[in-house]
């Protein structure tokens, strides 16, 4: 299967110490989903892939639930890190605020 050069850059970023949320954006039909699927298949860290394609519009609760499931899986696997991949997240209104809130809460929980 064809791999874009951006996949190697993304893998490098994923394995860096976690400082930032990675967002992949671009025009429709250029291979973003294919690239993240390839990434998911090649990861050596625990991960979870979800798509918000079939989620009803305006459902931020789904995003919180997915985040909670990822945290649960991370704890149950006794993993030091875990990658949550959410495809088509732009379909969830105010997704960035929800992600920021969960990111901060996750880091606060680790410190307690």
Report the strand count: 2
- Adjacency order of strands in the biggest sheet: 1-2
Class from helix and strand fractions: mainly alpha
Major sheet summary line: 2 strands, parallel
Outline type: globular
Please report the distance between the alpha carbons of the first and last residues: 44 Å
Q: Total number of helical segments? A: 4
Nearest-angstrom radius of gyration? Answer: 14 Å
Mean pLDDT: 87
In what range is the share of β-strand residues? 5-15%
Could you give the order of the helices and strands? HHEHEH
Share of residues in helices = 40-55%
Low-confidence stretches: none
Q: How do you describe this structure in short?
A:
This protein has 112 residues and is mainly alpha-helical. It contains four helices and two strands; from the N terminus they run ααβαβα.
Kindly describe this structure:
This protein has 112 residues and is mainly alpha-helical. It is 49% helix and 9% strand. The chain is built from four helices and two strands, in the order ααβαβα. The chain has a two-stranded parallel ribbon. β1 (47-51), α3 and β2 form a beta-alpha-beta unit. The mean pLDDT is 87.
């Amino acid at each position: 299967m064809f791999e874009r050069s951006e996949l190697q850059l993304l893998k490098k970023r994923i394995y860096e110490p976690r400082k930032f949320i990675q967002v992949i954006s671009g025009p429709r039909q250029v291979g973003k989903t294919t690239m993240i699927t390839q990434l998911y298949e090649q990861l050596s860290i625990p991960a979870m892939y979800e798509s918000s394609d079939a989620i009803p519009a305006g459902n931020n609760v789904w995003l919180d639930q997915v985040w909670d499931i990822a945290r649960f899986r991370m704890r149950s696997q006794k993993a030091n890190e875990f990658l949550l991949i959410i495809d088509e997240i732009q379909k969830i209104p105010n997704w960035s605020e929800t992600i920021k809130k969960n990111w901060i809460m996750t880091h606060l929980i680790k410190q307690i």
